[in-house]
C-alpha cells in the first residue's frame, strides 16, 4: 500500500507552529509522509528538523500576499502590535487559500491538517475529496468552555463586570467574571476577530474532526464531554513535546533562536539547588505595560526567590521607558537572570533547579509545565488562557491564580506586586506548595505514559491513522462531525 501522505498547515504564530511541526514529526515517525506548508518566516524550524533527521517535506508559500495590504516584513502574529492591524492579518489568512489549493492540486495528499485560523480549509479539502482535520492548539477544557460560553452567554446575566458567574452544564463549576471572557466570545462585540471565529466554529462542525495536543488522563471529563456532549470527532495525540526524542541543541532552537547562550543558561541553573528557581515567561505574543513589568520586578524581589524572567524584546514596553526598578539587576545579581527576547523554555523547564513556573497559560506553556512536573502561578492575559487557568488551578490543582481579571490582547496590566510575590511563595514554599508539586509530578508521569507504545495518545493516533487509510481506500465508514450544538 502507498504511504499515507498528510499536509500540515500551521497558523503564523509560534504557539501554533511549534506543536504543528511536532505533529508532523510524530506522523513521520509513524510511517506517514508528512509535509509542512509554511510561510517564509517559519522555514527555519522545519529545516532544522529536517537536518536533524526527520523525514518531512516542505512547501513554502509567499507571505504576506500582495492584496492583503500588510507591509512586507510581517511574518508572524507576534508582529501585529495594534488591534487595527489585525483585520489585514485576518484578510491575509483568507488569501492563503489559493496557494494552498494549488499545492493540493499538484501533490494530491490524503489528508489536510489545517489550523483553526483557516476556516476555508474544510471546503478546500472537500474539493479534493480528502478529510480536513482541524488543529486549535488548545485543551479539551478550553474548547468545551468556549462552546458553552457561546451557547449559554451567562455573562449577560450578571449586574457588573466583577460579579462571578458559573458556566452551566460543564463537568466542574467553573466561575468567571465578565472581564475574563474573551472578546471573541461576547455576542455584543462585532469585529474582524469575532467574525473570523464564527467561521472557525462553523468550519469545525463540518470538518472530519479535531486533533488535540493533550492526553486523556489530563482532562478525561472534558475529553468525554467534547466527544459525547458536543459530539465532535476528536483524537488526543499529545503531549507532542514528548513524542519526538531530540537533542538539547534542537530543543534550544525550538521555535526561534534563543536570546541567551543555552550553555550559559544551563550552567547558571546547574549551580542552583533543585526546585529553587522560579521561571517566569508569558509566551510569544502577550505584552505588558512598563508599569506592569515594574510590578513584576518588585514582586520578584519581595518573594525572595531565585528566578529566570523572560521579557519579550521591544514590545513589552516603551523602549525609552524605564521598566526596571533602580538597581534591580545589581541587587539580584546572584539570584536572578533576565532573558530579553526568546528563551530556550523547554531546556529551562526540564532543569531540576526549576521549582515553579509563572505562566500566561498559553496551552503549549501549560503542557510544558505539566510535563516538567512543576507547580504553576497562573496569569492569563488573553486568547483562551483564562479557561486553561481553571484546568491548572481548579481541576488539576497544580497551581495558584495570581488573580488576573482582565482579558486584553495588548498592553496588559493590573496585577500588583504583593499578589505576584504571594503566588510565587505559595508554589515554592510550604505544605500547599509541596502538595501541588506532588500532584504535578503525578501529571508528569501520566504524560510520559500517554505517549509510550500502548499509552492513550499513542493508541488514539494509531486509530486515526487506520481511519485515514480506510478513508483513502474509499471505504469511508466514518461520519464527519455531527454536532448537536
Ligand atoms: N517559547 C519559548 N521561548 C520563549 C517564549 C515562548 O520557547 O521565550 C515557546 C514556549 O515554550 C511554547 C510557545 O513558545 O512552546 C508559546 O506557546 P504558548 O501556547 O504557550 O503561548 P503563545 O505564545 O501562543 O501565547
Automatic annotation (TrEMBL):
Pfam families cross-referenced by the UniProt entry: UDPGT
Organism: Fraxinus pennsylvanica
Protein name: Glycosyltransferase
SUPFAM superfamilies reported in the protein's UniProt record: UDP-Glycosyltransferase/glycogen phosphorylase
Stated family: Belongs to the UDP-glycosyltransferase family.
PANTHER family tied to this protein: GLYCOSYLTRANSFERASE (PTHR48047), SCOPOLETIN GLUCOSYLTRANSFERASE-LIKE (PTHR48047:SF45)
GO molecular-function terms, A-Z: UDP-glucosyltransferase activity
Keywords, ordered alphabetically: Glycosyltransferase, Transferase
Transmembrane segments: none
EC number: 2.4.1.-
Amino acid at each position: 500500500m502507498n504511504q499515507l501522505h498528510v499536509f500540515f498547515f500551521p497558523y503564523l504564530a509560534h504557539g501554533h507552529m511549534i506543536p504543528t511541526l511536532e505533529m508532523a514529526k510524530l506522523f513521520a515517525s509513524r510511517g506517514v509522509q508528512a509535509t509542512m506548508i509554511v510561510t517564509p518566516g517559519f522555514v527555519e524550524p522545519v529545516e532544522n528538523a529536517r537536518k536533524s533527521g526527520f523525514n518531512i517535506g516542505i512547501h513554502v508559500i509567499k507571505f504576506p500576499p500582495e492584496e492583503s495590504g500588510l507591509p512586507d516584513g510581517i511574518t508572524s502574529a507576534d508582529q501585529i502590535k495594534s488591534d487595527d492591524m489585525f483585520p489585514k492579518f485576518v484578510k491575509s489568512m483568507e488569501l492563503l487559500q489559493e496557494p494552498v489549493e494549488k499545492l493540493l492540486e499538484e501533490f494530491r495528499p490524503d489528508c489536510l491538517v489545517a489550523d483553526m485560523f483557516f476556516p476555508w480549509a474544510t471546503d478546500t479539502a472537500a474539493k479534493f475529496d480528502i478529510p480536513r482535520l482541524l488543529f486549535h492548539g488548545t485543551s479539551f477544557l478550553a474548547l468545551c468552555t468556549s462552546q458553552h460560553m457561546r451557547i449559554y452567554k451567562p455573562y449577560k446575566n450578571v449586574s457588573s463586570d466583577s460579579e462571578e458567574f458559573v458556566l452551566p452544564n460543564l463537568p466542574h463549576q467553573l466561575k468567571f467574571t465578565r472581564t475574563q471572557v474573551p472578546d471573541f466570545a461576547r455576542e455584543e462585540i462585532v469585529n474582524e476577530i469575532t467574525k473570523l471565529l464564527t467561521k472557525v466554529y462553523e468550519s469545525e462542525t463540518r470538518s472530519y474532526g479535531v486533533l488535540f495536543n493533550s492526553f486523556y488522563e489530563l482532562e478525561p471529563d472534558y475529553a468525554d464531554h467534547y466527544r459525547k456532549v458536543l459530539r465532535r470527532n476528536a483524537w488526543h495525540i499529545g503531549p507532542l513535546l514528548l513524542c519526538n526524542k531530540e537533542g538539547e541543541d534542537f530543543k534550544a532552537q525550538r521555535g526561534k533562536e534563543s536570546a541567551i547562550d543555552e550553555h550559559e543558561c544551563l550552567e547558571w541553573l546547574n549551580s542552583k539547588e533543585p526546585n529553587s528557581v522560579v521561571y517566569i515567561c508569558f509566551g510569544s505574543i502577550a505584552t505588558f505595560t512598563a508599569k506592569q513589568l515594574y510590578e513584576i520586578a518588585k514582586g520578584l524581589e519581595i518573594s525572595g526567590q531565585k528566578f529566570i524572567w523572560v521579557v519579550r524584546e521591544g514590545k513589552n514596553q516603551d523602549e525609552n521607558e524605564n521598566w526596571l526598578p533602580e538597581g534591580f539587576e545589581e541587587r539580584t545579581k546572584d539570584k536572578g537572570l533576565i532573558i530579553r527576547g526568546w528563551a530556550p523554555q523547554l531546556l529551562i523547564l526540564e532543569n531540576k533547579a526549576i521549582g515553579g513556573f509563572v505562566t500566561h497559560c498559553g496551552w503549549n506553556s501549560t503542557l510544558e509545565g505539566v510535563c516538567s512536573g512543576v507547580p504553576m502561578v497562573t496569569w492569563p492575559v488573553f486568547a483562551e488562557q483564562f479557561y486553561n487557568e481553571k484546568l491548572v488551578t481548579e481541576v488539576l490543582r497544580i497551581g495558584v491564580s495570581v488573580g488576573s481579571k482582565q482579558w486584553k490582547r495588548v498592553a496588559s496590566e493590573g496585577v500588583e506586586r504583593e499578589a505576584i510575590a504571594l503566588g510565587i511563595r505559595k508554589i515554592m514554599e510550604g505544605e500547599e506548595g509541596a502538595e501541588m508539586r506532588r500532584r504535578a509530578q503525578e501529571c508528569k508521569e501520566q504524560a510520559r505514559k500517554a505517549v509510550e507504545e500502548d499509552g492513550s495518545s499513542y493508541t488514539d493516533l494509531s486509530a486515526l491513522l487506520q481511519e485515514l487509510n480506510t478513508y483513502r481506500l474509499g471505504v469511508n465508514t466514518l461520519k464527519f462531525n455531527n454536532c448537536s450544538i
